[in-house]
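user: Please review this fold.
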Amino acid sequence: MNEINVNGMAEPPVEETVDVELASPGRRMAAYLWNTVLTVLAYLPLLGAIIWPMSEYGFRAQGLEDMETLMATDWSMPWLLAGALVILVYTVWQLWWMSRDGQSIGKKIMGIRVVRTDGRNPGFWGTVLMREMVYNLLVVVVSTAAGYLAVLFAGSGMETADSIANIISIVFMLVCVVMLFNRSKDRRTIQDYLANTVVVRLPKR
């Protein structure tokens, strides 16, 4: 309840200020690794539903003799749907936390979060759209364009183009890692500059 001053007017609510510190490179990289591991785990049920029926043990369990018979049966369909559902739930869960709290599951585990440079929550626009989608689109466009330029002007083959694209993707990642150690720039990476954000460590409660 707001306090009332002597003139009978409601006092404006006082905004809570919390002292925070920049998230360390170690915590940010650990959060990335957590997200990577969790993403792989989320995809395992679907991959298993695709690969297992075609394995020798899968054929025996289903009483099948060849691939043609396998393709004619819907024995694995429930497992495929279950695997797809796991991915959907995991994705929605990640997007919801990132939009609401500025945290992926990995960032929640490591006690860090994304905030705008003015301290506000970047929401879906900043945390998901700009930091994730736009950044990854930028990497794909630049790396793919470099690969095709190598094909057009250097006469390289598609394998070389793919290699160049992969190298540039790795360069983007390494540049972001190096930027994590630049405290004078608040450890902001390319994603942070795109979304006007900074990653901070949450205080212990």
The beta strands are 21-22, 112-116, 197-201. Residues 21-112 form one domain.
